[in-house]
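Quiz preparation item.
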């Protein structure tokens, strides 16, 4: 009986071992895309990676900082054999003239999505005007007067801080160039896993925006993130609610 029981255990372990090895090697791939070319007010070309096979997708564009959610549908496509593909989409009339535009791809089945943004007209583009705050109606109707209605002052367009990755030294440093930062604001630099947008990431530095506008800086990559393929990075103001995020390939590169 003992020999039979030992044989059964050995057979079970033999059957289990390949399954365990297979699971340990499995890695989930998520679709993503980068912006490869922009023709102002005309079109944007994207390059995708890790696309699942034979899925139908819709392409949405919207105002910057909306992630393309509930944006204008500009096209549909099928991912075919999956992996990498290049595609060009027209910029909708409603977004022509904008400085920056959000773009999003969503699978019609499977729940896949990914979003990004691009400069459409960095030098002279416009920004969305914040919606005016509604004035509550008076409880009683005031008597008419001869006082003229003052002319309203246009609300200035809001510029949001952004930054690009300009150089990476693998597992060591990342260099960024920022734009439209608010003046005299303390920022914390956070880094974390891909897809986290740097939220609750590891603090990698701090800086003050000084006079605001443009900035350039290099930050150390935290040791805890060494070896990661892609890293999220976030600039978070300690007051005022300002923030911007991006991500980079953890490979030695320089523009």
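Solution:
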């Amino acid at each position: 009986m003992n020999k039979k029981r030992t044989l059964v255990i050995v057979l079970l372990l033999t059957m289990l071992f390949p399954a365990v090895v297979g699971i340990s090697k499995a890695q989930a791939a998520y679709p993503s895309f980068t912006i490869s070319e922009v023709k102002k007010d005309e079109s944007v070309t994207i390059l995708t990676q890790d696309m699942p096979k034979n899925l139908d997708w819709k392409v949405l564009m919207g105002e910057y900082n909306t992630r393309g959610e509930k944006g204008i549908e500009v096209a549909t496509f099928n991912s075919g054999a999956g992996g990498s593909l290049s595609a060009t989409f027209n910029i909708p009339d409603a977004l022509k003239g904008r400085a920056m535009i959000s773009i999003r791809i969503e699978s019609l089945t499977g729940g896949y999505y990914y979003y990004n943004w691009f400069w459409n007209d960095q030098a002279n583009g416009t920004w969305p005007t914040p919606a005016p705050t509604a004035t509550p109606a008076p409880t009683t109707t005031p008597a008419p007067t001869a006082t003229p209605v003052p002319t309203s002052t246009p609300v200035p367009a809001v510029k949001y801080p952004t930054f690009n990755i300009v150089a990476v030294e693998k597992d060591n440093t990342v260099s960024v160039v920022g734009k439209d930062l608010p003046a005299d604001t303390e920022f914390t630099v956070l880094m974390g896993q891909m897809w986290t947008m740097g939220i609750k990431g590891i603090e990698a530095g701090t800086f003050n925006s000084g006079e605001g506008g443009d900035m350039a800086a290099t930050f150390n990559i935290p040791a805890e993130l060494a070896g990661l393929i892609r890293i999220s990075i976030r600039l978070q103001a300690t007051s005022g609610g300002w923030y911007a995020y991006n991500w980079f390939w953890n490979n030695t590169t320089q523009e």
